[in-house]
């Protein structure tokens, strides 16, 4: 993370007490939260079991909460059975059948209002269509869609019949899609002809065809939604239009009673090595936390309109678009396009038009919109907003204050929520109306979440301001269950460091004198670009796959809007290019990486050098490269470098 930002966060002294007006109407008060906290501390498993009985509808009740016999592959509520889709949809029909579940706005301005009854019918029809195409419980289905209601319909339909979905972000390239299809052994891909983004059409079917052209033998069927009307090839015997697939299907589909531990979905995320890992989540434990936090952190009530701006391709779009708020019976907003299309007022215009009351977005979006000036949001009526949230990276106090003053009019609490793809739901966050907030801190762990900060030896770091590893001491229901097809990697990545004693998040953090958590950033080689996780190794592998690249090292450098920018040091094959040739190769490599991984992975800077700085054991000196990328003084010992002149090249001075 940006050292300047870290410093400013460390200096941050401001405390914002709960707004009494908000607190008066909030679902949770200090007493109730304290009771939950005490219950969780007294009996961790019993606390979660109680909530699971209260908040979930079971087809077959469970008898045991936590099963630790296969630790660290923990299981929750394992002998119970339920259906996630039934919990999110059918259960609301009696009371909320005509309440809107989804308020959708396309980038071009088209709007749809879908009630719980209509959504249930659509999910049933599509679930029947999946079955008609031969999909059964346990089959993997890849979803590669724009941000349209059908993406949620597809996810919920999978959940209804027990198919395991793996949503691939529509901004990822054909190569990334292929890799994920192969790793999951998917039988089906659900996509669209295209989607709208920033005034352009993203041709998803074309990318799907490209992915499938090479080694995706497991895929038998491709269902294609017509969204952008951009025309696409349909392969006979494999491809079928969404409309045709559902045409003869009835609007009823009995939800399957599935085991609590039945995998609900895989979601690929970046780690320290080149290959993304398929984070596997469960059904009951995941849904429990999704619903609980939708209510506890977002205070969702029946008259709320909740807008989480995340794409369903990320975990935030799973937990706080497709599952949590629906399980809580809320109305959600979905928007297809870019935040600044056609202008910087789009988000605020959507808030006004749809009467958004609870708004959840990422610091990178807040910073980008802040830069456009206060007079843009001033043109919109944001008076319905009552609660604001942020997620994805530490928020710098300047952006926090802007969000608080210009968007929340000093009235709306801000929930800064720390969590990860692996945790399934929010772990550390204020409870609005109860927890005083400090700009840049995610405050304290939620009840039942045993978060701690430990040193190299696994001892709790209690001294204020001292950093350490962020860990979770006790299993929790929505934790990941494993890495798909690679349980060893699961154990190594999250448990090995402290001998299986606790879950290691991969972040560093410190606590202040009030026990508030301040996240400092990743400790592994994971970049956080615009709140999206990317592994340095992934970008490096993409670069070295180019014929002109011999070797590459990628580091992050601070970026005002994106949080981190990607800086690549490249050793070319053949002579080192200079001048126009260097510029041309830079452009080519940036496009190449976009093609390999997706546009978000494009390096911002590329610098060519004859070789990379390495230790005697041959390890790339990343800390040195990081300092160079940031234009900082070099404090490392460079005496062991084989070719000290390389420093000048790496600095771009020779
Ligand atoms: C970072 C996103 C500080 C952190 C839900 C974590 C945060 C990674 C916050 C997970 C926050 C997320 N404050 N840092 N409120 N929220 N992070 O898997 O480094 O895409 O490990 O999940 O984002 O990113 P992921």
Overview features:
single chain; 654 residues; alpha/beta; 8-stranded mixed sheet; 7-stranded mixed sheet; 22 helices; disordered N terminus; binds 5'-O-[(S)-ethoxy(hydroxy)phosphoryl]adenosine
Topology:
Blueprint: H1 3-11, H2 20-25, H3 30-42, H4 44-55, E1 66-67, E2 75-76, E3 81-82, H5 84-88, H6 93-96, E4 100-105, E5 111-115, H7 116-132, E6 140-144, H8 149-161, E7 164-167, H9 174-184, E8 188-192, E9 195-197, E10 200-202, H10 204-212, E11 221-225, E12 239-241, H11 242-246, E13 258-259, E14 265-269, E15 277-281, H12 284-296, E16 305-308, H13 315-327, E17 331-335, H14 346-354, E18 358-361, H15 363-371, H16 375-378, E19 387-391, H17 397-407, E20 414-417, E21 451-454, E22 468-472, E23 482-483, H18 487-494, E24 503-511, E25 517-522, E26 526-529, E27 532-535, H19 536-544, E28 549-559, E29 563-572, H20 579-597, E30 605-608, H21 622-629, H22 646-650
Parallel strand pairs: 4-17, 6-7, 6-8, 7-14, 8-11, 11-12, 16-17, 16-18, 18-19, 19-20, 29-30
Antiparallel strand pairs: 1-2, 3-13, 4-5, 9-10, 14-15, 15-23, 21-22, 22-24, 24-25, 26-27, 28-29
Measured as a percent range, the helix fraction is 25-40%
Q: Ends: how far apart?
A: 28 Å
Strand percentage lies at: 15-25%
Q: What is the quaternary state of this protein?
A: single chain
Provide the structure class.
alpha/beta
Number of helices: 22
Bound molecules: 5'-O-[(S)-ethoxy(hydroxy)phosphoryl]adenosine
The largest sheet is: 8 strands, mixed
What's the total count of β strands? 30
